[in-house]
């Protein structure tokens, strides 16, 4: 996981391995690149990992991911390192189950050239890969973009960066939740659990209707003490809720008997 394909298929000697770690690990800790597939709404629908395939059909770990100095130009290019591959920068394309998605020319993504423009190799009418395949977020594929950014750029947007790790081509993976698609994560940003201050803040009109229905004390300690005192607002609301459900059952039972 540390070396990846940098050994060229030949196992490093212990001395070569230590020298490799001494040279490469500080670069990865300092200049890690975070790669994601982002929707127009700002959601990271796919966080790219080492095994995630590119449009050129090669995986992210087969691209150049280690930079001694991060390029100043934006977007940052992550070219493929496979011999004779025309891919100039990593470009994520989703799958439809296990097979590639189709272009509007009816041919699969892997039937297109990996060179910029992504022209079709199977027909002459296609001006470039353009798919209307709908992502789980509800937006079409062509509306998404592959984003390559630094740690500082992600932090400025309030996005997760995870722990500093020495592993090769980690891309946008910051935890187990990164393996899920964006719409399936409980938190769209993936930043993780909210702070205690946020959880203990008062309920406002902008909160979920369930919370507004029970606008009692927000902390567990306050709730416990209030219930122990008897006659609390929370206890009253719960009892009213129970009575409301009983009234509903009686109403539907009466309607059923009338039929």
Automatic annotation (TrEMBL):
List the InterPro entries hit by this protein, alphabetically: Fam221a/b
Q: Name one Pfam family in it.
A: FAM221
Which stretches does the entry tag as region Disordered?
220-259
* Protein family per UniProt: Belongs to the FAM221 family.
This protein's species is Nothoprocta pentlandii
Q: What is this protein called?
A: Protein FAM221A
